[in-house]
């Protein structure tokens, strides 16, 4: 009897809290999806329908024509920007993840003088917003004459203090010292141990770092704004921003900005959908332990 | 209040950043002066930053004709969108482009901070004065003797765009004075429309209206700045529009939005006082109204007068630190007065040239179908001649625009008035000038 009561009570409570949670989720989803829906609908309209039709519903479906004109405007510079962004964010996040994992692993697993001091200084870096670093970085790069180059945006992207923090915590928790000891006994060098043993165990954390860094490089707008003047080097965020400021001069550009904005979120969606599988696995594995 | 503190703090930060870099690089500013404008030896490569879409086409013509002076185009967002800040950073770091696009209202800021080179001693520059519409030359010399701080590129003379069909159907004549305009506004409101939309965020458009009324926002006597956002003419214009807002005779939609386009496209808005480049804004934002528009001179404060305002326009300046001011000046002069270059820029970016001959380019000769076949550029060519030559911009326009726009958006929603906003803008501008250690009265 008593168990049934508790069970029924539990069910009722969970139903209530479940539907409450569902409601909050639905509101959030609605709130986040409406702008994207608007963006998608707006991208499918031709210019004359843009102001004359309902902003949240379709006119004639011209998405592919719009993409076509975007592809030809200024010799398709938009796709060059997309490629740049993928390069800055993809290669940047990959290397940043590698460096951060190495640093975090070293701090977690090796005892050396100044270990805590080094870690605390890196941790301090988490608190400094990227925006605040852009101008000092510009002056630094100016000294070596490297502004307005690929490297001026790429090199600063390779640093991820948050990644170091995360990988230290993760390495401490998920890479057992015994395992490293065993690898050493088997004759593996430190580098080999790191790449064959540690990185496998730390993979979930690395995926998280990669995604975070990928998104933050993709969205880092201020640094390219200050560093770059050559249109061929722009990342897509910067390029679209530049176009958007030209709308009063050439009103037609507005359509390109909208279609471009839609296309520019696709790589982010791919990155998340493709990698969240690893992410979930990792979180699950951690939970079981 | 907090806004002002933040601004002053920002200025301080900027100043200290600049001071720092000046120490470390030895400063790039001291080694250039106007007297040194002589040709360089050998082949010269120049860099030119402009946000004009398609400017490469015009530059390509120059590069073909001048193999020894090659110009490379660099780009970025429009001036207030980041390029001006970049220019100042680059000037202090010593790697600014040789040439940069600078709007008229931003040029005083560059002048005050020694960001632009005085081109007066470069061959042929002073003589070029007669090629340009008088008032544009004042905008780049600031009335100083033996000084030319930039070459005028384009202008935005203003006129009245109006729905010829609706005015005719309502039996209204095109208003020639602001009094008639206000009277028409009441009649149009009764028919369910608005005579126009008051733009709460285009403060430079409002400045154009003050400009037309003969007012001044800034003056510089060579020693200090005088800020007069609340001058008599400015007050007159503010009170006029405040009256229209109070009686709900003008729309107050945020400009440059879909809603704003839709209001024009649907015929709710009947007129727009705007610059020559506005012709494109309407045809692109309100495609359903094709053929129904016409253009007339701006309404006047004094009956029978013909004063016009100006909204927008850029110059090409040689930035401090350029090693080739002579070649850069020659290029800037060519770019902004050569018929082929002007035609190319008009084609790619709809610019309306600042030269006297610009108005007779073939691009401006034809009637436009969107405007019922009217040769609208004749109206603007006339307006360009009737712009008050003495209007002066201040050295902190970005800040002034922001502060006044804050007040204007309050005024259209019923808190405060346009005049209050101008007075607040006045106080904040004086404070900002003081914070930047620029001498100012009051």
β content of chain B, as a range? 5-15%
Helix content of chain B: 40-55%
The coarse silhouette of chain B is: globular
Task: Give the class-level CATH name of the largest domain in chain A.
Answer: Mainly Alpha
User: CATH class of the largest domain in chain B, please?
Assistant: Alpha Beta
CATH architecture assignment name of the largest domain in chain A = Orthogonal Bundle
Q: Work out the radius of gyration of chain B.
A: 22 Å
DSSP helix count of chain A?
14
CATH topology of the largest domain in chain B: D-Maltodextrin-Binding Protein, domain 2
Given helix and strand content, the structural type of chain A is mainly alpha
The percent range for strand residues of chain A is: under 5%
Total individual domains of chain B: 2
| Alpha carbon gyration radius of chain A | 24 Å
> Which consecutive residue ranges of chain B, at least 5 long each, have pLDDT under 50?
1-34
- Biggest chain contact: A-B, 33 and 41 residues
Helix content of chain A: over 70%
Number of strands of chain B: 10
Brief synopsis:
Chain A contains 14 helices and no strands.
């Amino acid at each position: 009897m008593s168990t049934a009561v508790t069970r029924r009570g539990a069910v009722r409570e969970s139903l209530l809290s479940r539907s409450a949670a569902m409601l909050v989720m639905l509101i959030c989803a609605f709130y986040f999806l409406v702008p994207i829906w608007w963006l998608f609908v707006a991208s499918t309209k031709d210019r004359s329908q843009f102001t004359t039709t309902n902003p949240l519903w379709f006119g004639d479906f011209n998405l592919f024509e719009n993409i076509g004109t975007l592809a030809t405007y200024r010799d398709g510079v938009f796709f060059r920007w997309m490629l740049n962004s993928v390069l800055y964010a993809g290669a940047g996040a990959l290397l940043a993840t590698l460096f951060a994992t190495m640093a975090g692993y070293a701090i977690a697993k090796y005892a050396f003088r100044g270990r805590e001091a080094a870690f605390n200084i890196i941790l301090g870096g988490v608190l400094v917003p990227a925006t605040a670093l852009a101008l000092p970085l510009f002056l630094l790069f100016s000294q070596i004459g490297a502004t307005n180059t690929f490297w001026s945006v790429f090199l600063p992207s390779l640093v991820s203090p948050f990644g170091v923090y995360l990988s230290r915590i993760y390495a401490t928790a998920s890479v057992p010292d015994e395992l490293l000891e065993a690898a050493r006994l088997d004759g593996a060098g430190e580098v080999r141990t790191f790449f064959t043993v540690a990185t496998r165990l730390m993979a979930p954390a690395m995926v998280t770092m990669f995604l975070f860094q990928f998104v933050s490089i993709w969205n880092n707008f201020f640094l390219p704004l200050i560093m770059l003047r050559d249109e061929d080097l722009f990342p897509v965020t910067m390029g679209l921003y530049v176009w958007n400021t030209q709308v009063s001069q050439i009103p037609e550009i507005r359509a390109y900005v909208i279609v471009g904005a839609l296309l520019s979120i696709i790589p982010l969606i791919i990155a998340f959908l493709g990698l969240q599988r690893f992410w979930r696995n990792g979180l699950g594995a951690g939970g079981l332990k | 209040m907090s806004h002002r503190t933040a601004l002053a703090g920002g200025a301080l930060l900027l100043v200290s950043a600049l001071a720092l870099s000046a120490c470390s690089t030895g400063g790039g500013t001291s080694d250039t002066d106007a007297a040194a404008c002589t040709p360089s030896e050998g082949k010269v490569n120049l860099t030119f930053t402009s946000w004009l879409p398609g400017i490469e086409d015009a530059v390509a013509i120059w590069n073909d004709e001048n193999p020894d002076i090659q110009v490379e185009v660099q780009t970025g967002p429009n001036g207030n969108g980041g390029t001006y800040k970049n220019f100042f950073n680059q000037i202090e770091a010593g790697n600014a482009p040789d040439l940069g696009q600078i709007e008229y209202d931003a040029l005083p800021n560059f002048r005050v901070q020694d960001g632009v080179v005085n081109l007066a001693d470069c061959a042929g520059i002073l003589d070029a004065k007669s090629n340009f519409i008088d008032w544009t030359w004042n905008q780049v010399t600031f009335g100083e003797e033996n000084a030319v701080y930039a070459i005028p590129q384009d202008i935005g003379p203003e006129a009245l765009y109006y729905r010829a069909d609706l005015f005719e159907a309502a039996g209204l004549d095109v208003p020639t004075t602001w009094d008639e305009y206000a009277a028409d506004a009441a009649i149009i409101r009764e028919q369910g429309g608005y005579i126009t939309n008051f733009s709460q965020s285009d403060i430079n458009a409002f400045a154009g209206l003050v400009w037309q009324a003969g007012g001044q926002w800034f003056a510089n006597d060579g020693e200090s700045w005088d800020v007069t956002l609340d001058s008599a003419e400015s007050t007159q214009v503010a009170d006029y529009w405040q009256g229209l807002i109070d009686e709900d005779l003008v729309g107050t939609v945020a400009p440059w939005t879909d809603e704003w386009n839709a209001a024009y496209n649907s015929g709710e808005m009947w007129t727009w006082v705007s610059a020559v480049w506005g012709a494109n804004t309407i045809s692109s934002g309100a495609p359903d109204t094709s053929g129904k528009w016409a253009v007339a001179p701006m309404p006047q404060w004094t009956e029978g007068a013909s004063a016009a305002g100006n909204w927008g326009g850029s110059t090409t300046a040689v930035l401090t630190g350029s090693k080739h001011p002579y070649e850069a000046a020659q290029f800037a002069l060519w770019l902004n007065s050569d018929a082929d270059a002007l035609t190319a820029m008009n084609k790619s970016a709809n610019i309306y040239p600042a030269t006297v001959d610009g108005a007779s380019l073939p691009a401006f000769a034809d009637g436009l179908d969107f405007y019922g076949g009217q040769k609208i550029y004749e109206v603007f060519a006339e307006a360009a001649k009737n712009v008050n030559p003495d209007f002066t911009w201040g050295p902190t326009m970005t800040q002034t625009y922001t502060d006044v726009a804050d007040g204007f958006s309050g005024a259209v929603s019923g808190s405060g008035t346009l005049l209050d906003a101008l007075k607040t803008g006045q106080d904040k501008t004086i404070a900002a000038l003081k914070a930047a250690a620029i001498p100012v009265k009051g």
